[in-house]
């Protein structure tokens, strides 16, 4: 397509994150155009009326939106359980799909979606692994690929959400698939991405050898009823020799602390060692200090824009996607295996076909 | 004006910085719309043809652009000597003006422009003091205004450009007005802004008591012919008791290092203590290290977007400007006084009318 | 004993670390006095002749030193395999013992030594867990004990030695007991110390529930012959609910990087986030950077002095030891269990009697 | 002298800092031996009785101490006004002298002392410019001398003492000579040391061209009666082209913040960018933060030991002093000139003979 052509988007689901996506598509992505949103909630529609151009179509029913909005692509930011059915419906309606992670908290459902995408080879489907679009993760990836770190062999990764006294996420725990799936999927995806980049994978089917997990509850003992925890660690051994050490938490007091340390034979890089909100350092009676990003959004807000821009480019210019649904499926397998290891108390091994042996 | 109405912009001058402004107006500013650019240079027009929508009007003559483009506002990013005449021409053509700093390297010309703006009370004129739109300077300002730092009394400010072996800026030194005007105007403006915010100014005419300057050449002895230096320091004493310590340099080796330390009675803040390019820290044979922003642009790129957004809001909603041409004139007086102090070897005092005594 | 009385020390083994200890005892520890050293190596004796007062007795045979030197206490800094026999011989000679870690690479030998110490209730035996004497670890401990971090629940700890192209440690691998024992014993001891301090231990016999380990070789494939690795990770689950995540490495490129992150319910502390050598930051073409401590010695040199001072005080004033041989035994059990987990590929559980089940 | 011979010291004045010096000489300096202290205050003598070996002679009269103690050297840590007479008396008693800075708050007295030292060429006299013995300043000096920073041309230096609500220093202001002399003498000495190291000094008599100073009171308006301020800035232009920008303060809220930034043509170094107390970083509701050294003593405690060690070596081995009384005199001239500039409101120039023209 020509440079001046724009990709028409409908955003499905305009809750908190969907609103941000809608604004990005509307105002910050040169080759993308917001033509519609769909959300059944009155508050969401009211927000859209207040905040978006009157030319944007408003739908309460996503299927009607798919049928009538004239969108070329959808950005799915609805609640997790709708990710899979919306993706499939969008494909059948002939739309390209950018869907928030995870495809599903259920591994088989994720697998079914991936199978379905194969029937639509002309449609692009990308899962929103936003960290892949962050300039700092990109810089680390570039350093690995240009050999500046030697061979990467170990990643320590942490996603520590700020403690929320309201207990919001707890009420949501049952639907989230648990901390490894809900919170760890980005860490797992980045480990796959950064460790594989300069390593040969002897058996492309089998990417993981073994995982081990351990979790404990610090502030949310009520999570036990959902078999979930507020602090979880894990070790993932990859077939190519790389290792991921993982720490997920819902109880950080200073802010959202999303950390990665990538070890190569010739050096290491640390991403976001200090999760600072801005370039201000304060020196007062509390010491020498800086404020942290309160949520993942302040940390990755530019990445969400680049994500849409690159997906748009991939569709308009028919280029390969930076991350595809198979990547999402592999990450889901690992997160599911970690969850199983945590619950069973045993390491989980992977078969030669690349499937976790959930015994 | 209604929310959905957009402010139509023409960008005058699309050299390196003008191109960035044009792209911001075109793609990153929801209520702004790029309708035209003007630049006499073929390369600039070619860039515009390649990079902008075909709906954007291209002009080689800025006066024709003012007359025909249908713009409501102009963003002037031409070479410095055209800032003043373009501003005046735009006002006479009924356009709002957002002009890059400085208005002029000549104090009287700046004064003339400010006088001219008074004849057009319905037109907004803002000078692009980009640091005022940076989130970190804003955070410091907010802390001062909410009393978190007590009374501000001292600012140490440094603008240290990365050393450019090509000598580009040297060739440009004659036209730049010298390092205090070219490079120090932002530091001076920020000092006025941050020091005044919680202090009473007893005599609004006289804002400065005295300035003192000293400079030396480290890598560019040829600057002597233009009475300029590549490293300059200065002290500005404000009438409200605040002090600015200033260091300007063209010879930083690690990148663009733009630093501010604001001292209040109850604490201090440091802005950009480490001029890091991103959130990556490298640990290898060179130590524990980070890369720096190479130029002011990587440091302030989001500020340039906010600058246009806020100017646009001020025009569309008829709100006060965050910074106006009088601010630019006051900063120019101080920069001129520092230049005079450096050249004369004497402190420069200010009259009760607020004019530097350039004896 | 009166303040002015000094504790007389013999240092057994004056290789690199023993020399440092001897100098500390001689010159930096007010209540300690160096009266003798013992070492069979001519180079060591020559060093002692050159560097110590002529009043210090020099022995090639440690047993003769025990019998004749008049020392009240010994500081054992010999090669690891002599730690146990020297400790036992010193006790039988009536000397207090400060012995470098580990007591032994063999768990049963460590246990035998601990049993032997019980026969000498009037003699103090301390194992040199130097990190317990470091001001930063002390500060973290103090914060935990005063409740500033809430309840501690997770420690991420890393001991990453600088890569030594000479392969020195590789030649030594067989005698070291492997990376978990040789390099991880400090991390394990600190985790026991910092996690237990504000937690009740329900079953004092059983301190650990389970350990899991994984290792890989990056630069030293030849370690395989000793069943060892140059990079190792591990997870230790303590009975009190605390968790240790461990990373040990011989391949850091920037220096000795010894890191700890202690998570409490109300906050966390990071110890040595930047392993800087001094307070100098360099900004040049390599970026904004600092040099790292090259070895553990630069990192902990003051801790080694405090260690001797506190041991001396404990003996002279008959006060409890800051760390005792039972602590060393518990750490040895965990290190041995991690080694077994790494080699067997299985988690290792602990019995109700607190013994690792090395099946 | 032979290695085993020790230099016998008397410490004159054992107030807070003198006590620290006495303990260092007694216990941390291998070749130094504390034989006596002198102090007229009963509390000081009581401290000495409680804290020092009974072999240390205690004197209320320093002249008796000089006559009877058998010391080879004195360390003078008394109140400032006694520095000069004690130095002269010690020289006449045949003692080497290590005296705390400044020699005197009066320039002529300092000059007289320096003249007096010339009569005793066999006796060493060193002024305690402790920063010259700090490992980080040393590292910066080494980098300059080995050419790693190119030619040094600018130093920004700050000594900011923690605000003391008790007003202790205010009561002391009259006797201190004012902030430039009391607090700035170290910054001035370091600038002389670091800027001269790789520069030729065309006229050794005239080291300074011009100074300019400006001060203001933030929390201590009562200082006006002593012609003093609690915040002071200054610029010193050296004859070799180097420049010092100085900031002295009594009102830092977070701790003692002693900062230096040394600019060379090929890079710069920052010393103590974060005045951290230890290697602990806290992350809690107050942000990501570290504690600062509360006073100069925590910052420089190892430097005070090295200072005595190097002075001892210089005497015992008859080696040149690292810093001598002429250095102290030159620093005093500059501090006096800054004080004059602040009070007169004018720059102060230096004569060709190197004297400040205090007109």
From TrEMBL, chains A, B, C, D:
Span of domain Gfo/Idh/MocA-like oxidoreductase N-terminal: 7-128
Tree of life domain: Eukaryota
Boundaries of every Gfo/Idh/MocA-like oxidoreductase C-terminal domain copy: 142-348
GO cellular component, one term: cytoplasm
One of the GO biological process terms: NADPH regeneration
Keywords: Oxidoreductase
InterPro entries with a match to the protein in the record: Gfo/Idh/MocA-like_OxRdtase_C, Gfo/Idh/MocA-like_OxRdtase_N, NAD(P)-bd_dom_sf
Alphabetized GO MF terms: nucleotide binding; oxidoreductase activity
UniProt name for this protein: Myo-inositol 2-dehydrogenase
């Amino acid at each position: 397509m020509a440079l001046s052509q724009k990709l028409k988007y409908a955003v499905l689901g305009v809750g908190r994150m969907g609103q941000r996506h809608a604004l990005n598509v509307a105002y910050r992505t040169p080759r993308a155009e917001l033509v519609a949103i769909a959300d059944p909630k009155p508050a969401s529609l009211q927000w859209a009326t207040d905040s978006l151009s009157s030319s944007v179509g408003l739908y309460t029913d996503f299927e009607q939106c798919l049928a009538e909005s004239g969108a070329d692509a959808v950005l799915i930011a609805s609640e997790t359980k709708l990710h899979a059915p919306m993706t499939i419906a969008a494909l059948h309606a002939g739309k390209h799909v950018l869907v928030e992670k995870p495809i599903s908290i259920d591994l088989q459902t994720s697998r079914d979606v991936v199978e379905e995408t194969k029937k639509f080879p002309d449609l692009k489907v990308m899962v929103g692994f936003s960290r892949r679009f962050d300039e700092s993760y990109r810089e680390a990836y570039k350093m690995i690929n240009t050999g500046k770190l030697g061979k990467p062999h170990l990643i320590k990764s942490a996603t520590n959400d700020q403690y929320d006294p309201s207990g919001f996420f707890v009420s949501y725990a049952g639907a989230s698939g648990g901390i490894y799936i809900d919170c760890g999927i980005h860490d797992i995806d980045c480990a796959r991405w950064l460790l594989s980049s300069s390593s040969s994978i002897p058996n492309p089917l089998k990417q993981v050898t073994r995982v081990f997990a351990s979790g404990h509850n610090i502030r949310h003992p009520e999570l036990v009823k959902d078999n979930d925890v507020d602090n979880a660690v894990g070790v993932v051994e990859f077939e190519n020799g790389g290792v991921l050490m993982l720490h997920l938490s819902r109880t950080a007091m200073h802010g959202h602390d999303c950390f990665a340390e990538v070890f190569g034979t010739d050096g290491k890089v640390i991403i976001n060692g200090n999760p600072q909100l801005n370039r201000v350092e304060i020196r007062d009676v509390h010491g020498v200090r800086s404020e942290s990003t309160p949520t993942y959004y302040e940390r990755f807000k530019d990445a969400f824009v680049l994500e849409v821009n690159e997906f748009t480019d991939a569709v308009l210019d028919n280029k390969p996607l930076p991350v595809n649904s198979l990547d999402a499926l592999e990450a889901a397998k690992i997160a599911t295996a970690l969850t199983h290891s945590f619950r069973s108390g045993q390491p989980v091994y992977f078969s030669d076909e690349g499937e976790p042996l959930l015994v």
